[in-house]
Amino acid sequence: MPSIAINVRSDFIVHWTGAKSIEKEYGDPESENHKNDQFRRDEYVKRMSSMLTNGMWMNDQIVELNITDKGGDFGTLKWPATCFTEIRLSRTHSHAERYGFLGFGFSREFALKRFGAPVLYVPGSQEWGLGALDIIGPNFHRLLALSSFLEKQTLNTQSMPFPHGMISVRNFPDFTNFINASGLQAFIANSNLQNNSELNAHQLFYLLRSSIMTCAIFVKRMSDDNCTRSFELLDEAEWRIPYTDNMVEKGKILPTNKEKPRGKMLFTADELRVIIFPDDDTRNMAYRVADKDPDISKYLHSPHLITPTVRECMHF
Fold this sequence. Notes:
About 40% of the residues lie in helices and about 25% in strands. The protein is an alpha+beta fold. It is globular, with a radius of gyration of 23 Å.
């Protein structure tokens, strides 16, 4: 019999928002806005308007990696990223209940052009005793520790301080040999770190650590603390776009110089494919706002955009 291909993934990747703020206050019995539907609609329309004009938040994502090969203590690392899910739209209701009822959908190409990719789900002690995450974690820590060690050794080689971390490469033959042997010449050239014979050593090691972290951010456990061996996180089919200086320079990410959010992911009306609304009333409110605000109108009236509700997505 010929095999039948079944598409289990969506044509879009969707960023969801609202669970930690709007839904939390709406569902809190002690809140003055408990079960206040108008409050909920108003807040979701405000959130939509903010993200359309200012971008999606890039919050710190926690990367918990075992420090030792035998499990045990976790070292908590953080790196800003914007998260998406690739699940089919017909399965969005349960996902929205967990992450919020407002979704912004994009093509996979949108993420790939920003160094985004699906996360790598690996088993850890949550799933099967000592798992792959417990082996991968220590290696990331070793790489970070090695980078810090090399930076300290490099900048302490000569007693005279170097302003702004600028050093003369020819004065450090061992470091030059290390760069040549490790194949970092192209990395340095592409990162614009070297000007003639001077190298910004601080920036070099910062970028090395950034490269390590933007790899670590894609490694994720299959289950969280509350769903041991249920593989619930694996079913989310998550994508992430990490914060990178390259995308800042290209105007794709706006740095905020704040703790939260660390940056904002910008996008155009042509790049936005879907806005998923909590309900029909919220969607109608959003279009009324768009009729008065040209900055919102160019998104909501884009010919590329569809605007289903969470309930309507069940029929996709």
